[in-house]
Structure formats: C-alpha cells, structure tokens
Amino acid sequence: MERIATERGREVRRGLLAAAVELITELGWNAVSTRILAERAGVRPGLVHYHFASLPALLNEAATGAIARFADTAPLTAELSLDDGLDLLVGTIAEAPGAISLLFSETYLAATRDPDLRRRVGELTAAFNSSLAGWLASHGHPAPSPTATVLTAALDGLALHKALDPALDLVGTKAVLRAILHPEREGNPS
Amino acid sequence: MERIATERGREVRRGLLAAAVELITELGWNAVSTRILAERAGVRPGLVHYHFASLPALLNEAATGAIARFADTAPLTAELSLDDGLDLLVGTIAEAPGAISLLFSETYLAATRDPDLRRRVGELTAAFNSSLAGWLASHGHPAPSPTATVLTAALDGLALHKALDPALDLVGTKAVLRAILHPEREGNPS
Amino acid sequence: MERIATERGREVRRGLLAAAVELITELGWNAVSTRILAERAGVRPGLVHYHFASLPALLNEAATGAIARFADTAPLTAELSLDDGLDLLVGTIAEAPGAISLLFSETYLAATRDPDLRRRVGELTAAFNSSLAGWLASHGHPAPSPTATVLTAALDGLALHKALDPALDLVGTKAVLRAILHPEREGNPS
Amino acid sequence: MERIATERGREVRRGLLAAAVELITELGWNAVSTRILAERAGVRPGLVHYHFASLPALLNEAATGAIARFADTAPLTAELSLDDGLDLLVGTIAEAPGAISLLFSETYLAATRDPDLRRRVGELTAAFNSSLAGWLASHGHPAPSPTATVLTAALDGLALHKALDPALDLVGTKAVLRAILHPEREGNPS
DNA sequence: CATGAATGAGTTTTCATTCAT
DNA sequence: CATGAATGAAAACTCATTCAT
After folding, report:
1. pLDDT digits over A41-58, tens only?
2. pLDDT given for residue B184 in this prediction
3. What is the per-residue pLDDT for A98?
4. Cβ(A33)–Cβ(A64) under 8 Å?
5. CA angle, A33 as apex, A26 and A97 as ends, to 5°?
6. Which chains are adjacent to chain C, needing at least 3 Cβ pairs under 8 Å?
7. How far apart are CA B9 and CA B4, in angstroms?
8. B33 closest-nt by C1' vs CA
C-alpha cells in the first residue's frame, strides 16, 4: 500500500510534463514559469522543484519526450508509399491548433542555447532523419540523406509559417514536395 | 545647433535597434532585457524608454527592420538564373555564425503571440513570397506561388537546423532544392 | 530481533551527528540543511526529523558532543609539563585541514543567538577552563584562572586565523605563548 | 541641482552598509537577508540590488569597510606606551554590547568560504598585524611579529568569548597579556 | 523504523517601467 | 536630451517541517 504515495508522485510528474508541453507551444519556451506550470498542472508551486532539479531540466525532458513520442507515432515503413507518407507528414502539421507544430521550433531555438538539450535534440533529429532517409531509400530514392534533410527542414518551416498564418494552404504545398520525393523522373524523360 | 542633439538621438536609436537584432539572435527574443540592451548599445538604461514606448515595441521595430533590409539586399530579379538565385538564397544561411538566420525563427515565434508583430511580419513575408513567386514565374515555373511557400519554409527550416548543427551540409541540399525549381523536367514532358 | 532495528536507528543517529560536525566546519553553521545533511550521512531526508526534534537541536547536539569529546581527548594532567601541554594544545590547531578548529568558532557564534546552546557551551567552556586552570595551578602558576581564559581565547583566535591563512606560522607562536605559562620567571629573577 | 538624486543615492548606499554591519553582528553573517537589510535601512527591498551587485558583495564591502575603519581609529603610535596600548586594545572589546567585536569573527568565518573576501580580509589583517608589530618593535620588543600574531588572535578570541559570556572578566586578562608585551624581563635578566 | 510526497514561507535576483532632476 | 534613483512584481530555487503510508 505504501505505493500509493509513489503512484501519486508519478502522476504529478506526468502532469507537469504534459502541462509543460502545452505551455511551451502556447506561451513560448521562455515564458513558461514554475508558477504558471504548477497552476496548469493543478499542483502547488513548491512541488515543481521537488520532482525536477530545475525548470530547464523539466522543459528539456518534456520537449524531448514529446518529440520522441511524435517520431514513434509516425512510423514510416517501407509498406507506406511515398505519396501516402507525404500525406501523413504534412497532415501532422495541419492538425492541432498550431499546438505541437510549434514545439519543434521552440525546442530547436532553446537547444541553441542549452548544450544538454542540443545533444538530446540532436540525437532525436538524427534518428528521425535516418529513419526518413531509410524510408526514401526503400523506395529507390537516389539521394535519400540530403532529401531527408530538406524534407524535415521544409516541414519544420511550414509548421512555423502555418502557426503565423493559419490560412496557409498546406494542400498546395504537397504537390511541390512531391517533386523532391520523385527526383528519379527528373532529367531522363527518355 | 539643436541639430546636434537630434543627430545624437537618432544615432542612439539606431544603436539600440542594431543591438537588439544582435541580442535577439544571441540570447533569444525573451531574454533581451532593457539593461542588457543598453549595455550592448553603450547607452544608459534610462534611454531605452526615452526613445521607445516599450521594450516589445523596440524589439518589433528592430526585427521587422532587419528582415525588411534582408529582403532588399537579396534582390531576385529576372536576370538572375534559377540556379544562381538558389545559390544566393542558400548562401545567406551559410554565412554569419548562425546569427541572422535565427532572427527569422525568433521573430516568427514572437509574432505568434503578438498581434501587432504578426501583422507586420505577415506583410513582409507576403511581400517576399510574392517577389520570390514573381521571380519563379519569370523563369516559366508552372506553380510559382506554392513553390515560393515551400522554398521559404525550407530555407527557414534549414537555417534553424543549421543553427542547431553547424556541421549540417548545406551544399548537398542545393541539389535537392533544385528539383523544386525545375519541375518542368519532371514526369511527363509530353 | 527488534534490537536490530534499534541498532540501526542508533547508527543513523550517530551518522547524522558525525555528518553535522563535518558540514558545520565545511559550510558554516547556517548552511547546513536537512537535505545536505541527509545526503552526507547517506540516509533519506525524512529520517532527520524522525531522529531529531529539529535541525537546530541536531546541530546543537552534534557540536556540543564534538567539543566535549575534544576536551576529553586532550587530558591536561599534572604529569604533563607546561611545555608539553602547550605543544599538545597548539598541535590540535595545526592538525586537520582547518576542520575541527572552525567548529569552535562556528559554535560560539551560533551560541550567541541560541540560549539553549549558549548554556550548554558555557558549561563546556567553563569545565575546560577550570581543568586548564587546575593544570596551571598544579605547576605553580600564580594566576591560573585568567591565564586559562587568555590561553583558550588565544587558541580559538589562532584557529580562526589559521583557517583564514593556512600559511600562518604556529610554531613561532609557541614561544610567545610560553611567556604566559611561565610568568613566575618574570620580574624577580633573584 | 541634478546632483540631488545622486546625493540621495549615496546616502542610501551608506545606509545599507551601516545596516549590514549592525545586522551581521546581531543575526550572524548568513542570516542577513535582503529584506531584513532593506527594512533596517528604511528602503524598499528592490533598492538593495540597484546599489549592489549581490548580497555577498554588499556584506563584503560593509564588513571590510568597518574593519578598515576600526584599524584606523585605533592608532598604535610609538608615543603610546605598551601598557596604554594594551588598555586601548582590550578596551575596544569591552565597549559596545557585543556589537563590533563579533563582526571580526563573523567576517573571518565568512572569508573562509569566499575567496574574494578572504583576499580583502587577508590584506587588512596583514596591515594591522604589521602595524602592531611595528609598534611593538618601536618599544624594543625582541619578537614583534609572532607576538603581534598571538596578540591579535587572543583579542579576537576574547571578543568571541566575551560575546558568549558578558560576565567575562577582561580586566583580569590584561595582566596576563602584559606578560607577552614585556618578555624582555623574562628568563635572562643578565 | 522508514519513506517520499507535499506545503508554504523563505531566499536572491532580475526586470520593465516611471519619474524627478 | 539624458540620467540614475526608485518601485513593485515576478523570476527560480531552497528550506524545515509535516504526514500519510
């Protein structure tokens, strides 16, 4: 039964991490304060530093966790056709009211100033890029690696612009991105 | 004689704006404080609020000014070939140690939470996008507008990733982006 | 079997007291917190208040215990010559890297603000002073009591200065202190 | 007239330093908080960090300033006889309700953990010791330097003990200290 | 005996902004 | 035009202590 307290503790931790992800996208990374975070998570401010060493540590864990979870839920398997995969990727940007898409940009910028976060984010993006490149290669793409780089960059950039202008037409961009995915048709029309 | 004082005032204003642009990229939008700003500009802290209504107003003016200046100094005229234009655009990201490239992302994210800034940034990006689309159209591109959108997004995304990982190979990405600029070769030339 | 738990409890108590003595000299009386103390003692933070009524109570017991133990291990018996006794006393300051010597000053200052501690420390110093005076008297010193007072003060002061400047020459001071111990030679050499 | 604000600022600074000296002796070095300090000085808490970079910086300046002032007001000139000088030195401990005398011990202990303060205090004590040694030498003392060391230590120690036990008889100690000042009578009167 | 979650008051420090001069 | 003092709110973080389990 002693576990009950421990269980509650874990719940609080999870609640704080979830609240952090929400608030990073709503207010921006640097505007997430312990008080606001505690209020959103429904706990007293003092608890934040009981469960986490520091606010940056909490934000880092929350952001990298969310990003890792995102990568896991968008599996690009060889069975997925190039066009369906593109639909999936662009679709994630369109969903959610600007929410998760801003998390990436916020986290990248924060990582610029936090070596620890930079390392963790670097690992995640490297893994995602290589998984993306593998998917492209499985479909016979001649230059999977640089293409994955550009594709990821374009998606992050589109998410940023979409947050700025919700009227942005993402559907129209799919046709453009397809030109990247199908370069084999390029040059040799036979 | 009063001109001298007026001249000095203008100089101080310019100095503050220039310092703000530097600091936004170095420390992040929300970490730029009046004191740090005044110190970097070499003026007394009290002067900041003498020349500007508020700190956000100063940052907004500094950021939009720098972005507008950037667009002006990268003129995409019809004389410029597609490949040379691409070199020019990608080149701006490679230059400067992550400095100016982060300004865009910082400003976009800040604009997400500041309606006034959002309007101003929206105008600038719309202008840049339409200038980019015009350049593409002048070279016979079949879908200039969505292509301009994707290209801008990709460039902003690459700038963000480059700041995170300075080892990022931008040269390799040029070949990929070229597939976007030359879609006419694609698929069915009939 | 219940003895085992009791034994463990006593061990924890001792461990906390020993850790407190270390930390008082390392960090200063007021910088010793329950968490740091628990960590040093290798126990969980909650245990501190299980074994002791309060943190000040723990510190008081630790400090007075260590001081009492010190007095016991430096026995000034009549068999000990004045010069050998002086060597012994000054020697205790030179030993240990500033460690135990600071405990006295820290405790005196803390006692200044804690009536309970003051009483306990007062008893200990009175006992030590009277033992020191007895030793001096046994060697025929004409003014044992004030001399003991000055000697104790000088030793505490030297310990304080030694902690500040480890290069302090304690050997040279012995000759000076000897003048206090041998006043009988003074004046009437006859 | 613009100077009026500046003048007030200087006054506030002085007030904070004076309050710090009082509070260090009353509450102990580590118990002096910005709030308590501001309240004692009669200013708002925010002002503390306007005038001083940090609380330790304020305390360091206050303590070293007071100690330096003390050394200046107790001038040991050659004209002063050994016995009169001793009266003067011991007298400073007896005066003031434990106030200034504790400042030294508090500062020494704080200097143990603050390199910057240690350096400054080291310079002050070195200067005082050498002035004391010079005074002893001018009276023909055979071992001025170690004697000055012991004398300073004894005075600091007596101040500490006096604060602990206000009933401590300082007058009786003077006779003992005199044995240190007049060692020439000792041993070999020829 | 022991644990770890929780609390609320406390700490230093930074900040944008105002204003008298 | 410019200065620097002042203010009050807010920031992150630490703490001793309590208590349910």
Report:
1. 999 999 999 999 999 999
2. 56
3. 52
4. no
5. 10
6. D
7. 9
8. E15
Query: Within a 10 A sphere around the Cβ of B90, how many other Cβ atoms?
Result: 18
Q: Which nucleotides of E are covered by protein (CB under 7 A)?
A: 1-21
- B102, A118: Cβ pair inside 8 Å? no
Reported as a single tens digit per residue, the pLDDT across B98-132 is 567 899 999 999 999 999 999 999 999 999 999 99
* pLDDT tens digits along B4-28: 556 666 888 999 999 999 999 999 9
Nearest residue of chain A to residue B31 (CA atoms): A30
Contacts of C145 in chain D (CB under 8 A): 172
Q: What distance, in Å, lies between the first and last C-alpha atoms of chain C? A: 74
Is the Cβ atom of A56 within 7 Å of strand F at any atom? yes
Q: What angle do CA C3, C4, C7 make, to 5 degrees?
A: 85
Question: Which of B106, B113, B150 best tests the A interface by mutation, with the highest count of A CBs <10 A?
Answer: B150
Chain B neighbors of A145, CB-CB under 8 A: 172
Place of tokens 């036990």: D165
- Look up residue A166 and give its DSSP letter: T
Q: Do B158 and A153 touch (CB under 8 A)?
A: yes
Q: How far is C82 from C132, CA to CA, in rounded Å?
A: 11
Q: Which of residues 17-76 of B touch strand E (CB under 7 A)?
A: 31-36, 45-46, 48-50, 54-56
C150–D154 C-beta distance less than 8 A = yes
- Over chain B, what is the mean pLDDT? 88
Structure tokens at D59: 């305390």
As a rounded value in angstroms, the CA-to-C1' distance for B110 and F9 is: 23
Residue C152 CB partners (closer than 8 Å, separation 6+)? C125, C128, C129, C132, D157, D161
Of C35, B107, D174, the residue nearest A53 (C-alpha): C35
* Nearest CA-CA distance, residue B145 and chain A, Å: 9
Buried b (16+ CB within 10 A) or exposed e, C158-188: bbbbbbbeeebebeebbebbbbbbbbeebee
CA of D126 to C1' of F6 (A): 40
Three-state secondary structure call for residue A98: coil
CA-CA-CA-CA torsion sign (B91, B92, B96, B99): negative
DSSP-derived 3-state class of residue A142: coil
pTM of the model: 0.89
DSSP state of B29: G
Q: What is the pLDDT along chain D (190 residues), one digit of tens a residue?
A: 445 667 778 899 999 999 999 999 999 999 999 999 999 999 999 999 999 999 999 999 999 999 999 888 778 888 899 999 999 999 888 876 556 789 999 999 999 999 999 999 999 999 999 999 999 999 999 999 999 999 999 999 999 999 999 899 999 999 999 999 987 554 443 3
b vs e for A120-140, b when ≥16 Cβ sit within 10 Å of the residue's Cβ? bbeebbeebbebbbbbbbebe
The stretch C110-129 carries a mean pLDDT of: 95
Among residues C124, C137, C145, C9, the alpha carbon closest in space to that of C67 is found at: C124
**Which of A12, A6, A21, A92 is closest to A61 using CA atoms?**
A21
